[in-house]
Amino acid sequence: MKRSTLILSAILALAAAAAARADLCARCSQLAFTADVGSCKACPKGTTTSGAFALCRACSKKLGQCESCRAALGGPAPAAGAPLAIGQEKNGKTVELPVAPAGILAIRLEGNPSTGFSWNLDRLEGSAVAGQGPIDFEESPSGRVGAGGLFIARFKAVKVGRSKIFLVYQRPWEKNVAPAKRFTITVVVKAAKNKR
Where in the chain is the domain with CATH 2.60.40.2020? Predict the structure, then answer.
């Protein structure tokens, strides 16, 4: 075997091992990542196990989010005060949220504004949640131009009850054209439980 082939094999094995130890969502666990390091986007001192990752391992566990795309991971709920981060996997589903201050919902949906498309709030039914500013865009960790990333819509639980959030992925200037994608979620806001 050539030396370059051995080196490439070793690099691929290291990348696979780093990804295998990472806390990744189902989608990201099927991908290959570089075996270099990067900076955590959630804490100033954190180092990621891949330059393509957004979170260090500690922040991933603390926030309950995928190290790569920051989608919600299964298991325990995020720490008090941390937003409940959800993605496309919750489309059409219902989630529960405690009344504020802990009740923050972050809907993280893939998109690519370089194509002219963006996620926008179509409508909000009910008054249990309220929008938390404009929908933000977070570039792909790859940093490549035109690579897309995540649109993040934040909502705060304001009172006990039920709300339904409708988001659409479309080009805002195209009138009378159906959205390319839709995302709908029902949010049930419950009274925060007292700790004793």
Answer: 82-196
**pLDDT above 70 coverage of the chain, percent:** 72
Query: Checking DSSP bridges between strand 84-86 and strand 47-48, what pairing results, if any?
Result: unpaired
Euclidean distance between CA atoms 173 and 134, whole angstroms = 18
75 contact partners, CB below 8 Å, separation of at least 6: 64
CATH of the domain spanning 82-196: 2.60.40.2020
Cβ-proximal residues to 137 (8 Å cutoff; 6+ apart), any chain? 111, 113, 118, 149, 150, 151, 152
Q: Is 138 exposed, middle or buried (0-12, 13-18, 19+ CB in 10 A)?
A: middle
User: What confidence tier does 56 reach under pLDDT thresholds 50, 70, 90?
Assistant: confident
Residue-wise pLDDT for 128-177, tens only, equals 999 988 999 988 877 677 788 999 999 999 999 999 999 999 999 999 99
